[in-house]
Sequence to fold (610 residues):
Amino acid sequence: MISGSYSFNAANIPVPKGITDSSGCTDLSVKQVTAEGFSGLYWLNSRLPWTYKDFLWSDKEHDVLVLMWGSVYNRSEFLTSTQPGEEVNDPQLVARLFANEGPDFVKRLNGDFSIFLLRPMEKRAYLYRDQMGIRPMAYAIESEILHFSTDMVGLCMSLSADCNIDREYLLGYFKFINYTKTPERKVVKLLPGHYLEFFPGGHRINRYWEPEKINQDKALSHNQMLSDLKALLQDAISIRCDKRFNAGAHVSGGLDSGYVAALARREFAHQPDFKGFSWSPDEFDIPEGARHDERKLVTGTSTYAGIQPVFSSMSSNEFPGIVSAYDKNYGFFSEDFTLRQAVEFKINLILSGWGGDEFVSTGGCAIEADLLRSLNLRTFFRRNPLFPIRRFVRVMLACIINPALGFLGRDTRRSLRNDTCYIKRNFKKSNKKALDSFYLNTSRRQLHLGMLRFYHLPNRCEAWAVSGYRKGVEYRYPLMDIRIIEYMLKVPSKLLCVTDHYRPVLRLISEGILPEEVRWNRSKNDPVYWKYMNGLYEEASKIFMKEVGVWRANPYLDFVDFDSLEKDISTLNTNFAETERRILVRSLVYLKAINEFTVSYMKVIRDRGA
Fold:
């Protein structure tokens, strides 16, 4: 992680007090960086194989300083003229490319990175963030000083002056919000695919990646698409498998994580053990009537690929503490426990299939709209026969009519109402752009672009980047390789309909990589996991409901309808339906998490001012 402050007018400037917090992690050490008008920091974690050369490059002769967190995966493209034995780390590579090509050099990078680049003599500074937002970057500009950090919450706490927390940020679990928001309104997230240029008199935000300009390739054939994507996927995994790490992967019963884990295992064949982490519980009875046990598919993929499955053993005694650590895990409770398991097994790199659903393996119903629009009627009616007529009507409403008219489906509207049932009326409304991006897509292209606009992909990535680094674990996401995203935008939807397979690309190219029962599994539901988590939420809520009186006194929870909440708690064991009970229980858990976040957040601010 990196942080810093830069001013044109001061010879030396301190980093804001409080931003050096290492969150009690004994493996972290803070290193200081200074230059004319600049004071910065980077964190080294002893569990990771990086040294200062992976974070810092300074060359006074050429007037450049690079402070960087992340990796460039296509570095070999730029090092063809390197002398034998010459070591060029990523920050030095960035400095070279900037010197040769100027600020737009970043257009050629394929990687996960947050970069601060300083030209002290020219009095210019730059912030860069990778195209997909794998690495975080937040900044604030006040009194002609640029403050930045990859620890967004830490920067907010350091710069908060009025002891106020943006309520929309806190409401992210209960409704759709603008997920680029931060707790402190003056602190802004640099958007993925953008860079900031800071100069005397102002600053400028430049967008360097524009996927909207990628045109569909109508000459592409089905076989060529499969061949190209297979090569891209394999290379995307390979270039992220840095042998300096001790690696593992997420493994579920699905195609995305299974494909990534299986090929990553081959890359790390030298490792005696390769762990596959599952959120499903280790010892837990399958719910009555459930048709699907995710653990069997996880075991099948793991056995087939030579992976040792690691299931969750998170207990009801541990769960309340994990909920209370919301400021460290950002609400990803299951992954918090996975990180603990990774540390226990000395794993410091986790490969994830996150992002596959939105791009390479999408089965989104916006494909049906594409078929109609392009008059591929034979294919459309093969996939959506007129009879039974009720099913056909449901497809037309969900995939064609509702998105075109901007109407949310009935189930979606009910879910949104349920999620905000304990939120006061003036705070209930979701962000329309977020809803439109996620639900109301009238083409597959719009679906892909909407997923990029919606910010839910980088929201998870930036949270895991920070929480993982604190524990000494690096995350990498091969299915979010920029080349794969750009390629899928070129693919006509009709090529995804040559067969009637749901999620056809990975289903076809994973032959020989995944077991057949996983390749042809259509279910994404995991009844064992949800029953397990519901039990943990239920037990924790019994503890948390006793604290509601304390929460009522928290001024940052003024959006909560405590009267309704306490009324339902008082009648919880009498006339509550299962759905209503689950809504109440989950609301209690997330309100507890948010309360603890605000308490710890304000404590840092008060301690800073003491």
